[in-house]
Amino acid sequence: MSEGAEAARKSPWALVFRIGTWLLAGGCFYLVYTRMEAAAERESQTVLEYLAAFFAGADWLFWLALMIPYSVFFFLVDSHVTWRVVRWFNAPALQLSGVLPIRASAYILSLVNEQVGKGAMSLYLLRRYRVPGWQALSSMILLGLMEVYQLLAFSGVGVAANFHLVREASTVLPLDVILPAVMVVAAVYLPLHIIYFRTGTGGLREKPLLTAFRQARPVHYLLIVLFKAPNLIGAVIVYTFALDLFQVQVSLGQMLAFLPVIFLAAALPLPFHAGALLLWTVLFPDYPEVAAFSFVMHTFFVLFNAAIGVLFLPRANRELFG
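User: That's the sequence. What structure does it adopt?
Assistant: Structure tokens below.
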């Protein structure tokens, strides 16, 4: 371990951050539990009985018929957009067939840490194409930024088309104010970001980890969002039908408005995606059990993607280590 990494690990601020995230996660779980407990009491049940009845009523066979194809579809779309970005900024000769095993194996590493999973691509590019690690990471940072903007863009469409649903869900948090404000700020920031990195010199433009931002043209930002769009559209459809299989009635409009926001909450550095679990119960107050539903959905998704990674692991090992 390098001295810098050792210092970061021992930093008191790192410890404070870690404790803080766990405390926030605990608070989220407590709030989710109290909401489910209140719903269970209305049915004269315990929380465990309430959840058992919820899951017992699900059509699990059709649920698997939804989730398995979507997980495979997600993997293919995710690999494609990663391949495009890497070809643009790092390795023009890279073939899609070379990305598939590395991206798949990264899902295994992502079970432990999402950032470690992204490092697999950097290692592959370093060993096979002599791409410096910082240059490969810069492409992953650009990809991460546009993942956020893709969620904001689709949520913006959903919120605009179904603003009455946002108002109805604003009983706990003023979402009808927060969501439009966040989207306006994001819409103003992106063109300023592009102009900053495409013009002038010095400052953040010279940071090696931000090299991809200097190279990216506006069309690249647009294409990344478009290439990733099928996954989010698929998620909106899959979650809508999956909830119906669990006897939770939601519309495509609700999912389009709320699911991207929930995915953004899932990206917060909280254990077990606690922020997303709480947001489910805030957005669907009549169905607090959807927090447990989302936990099952996410757990299956990451485990099945890891299983795809296991299938590709022998080839990934050959690509990475000869």
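The chain has one domain: 16-89+98-321.
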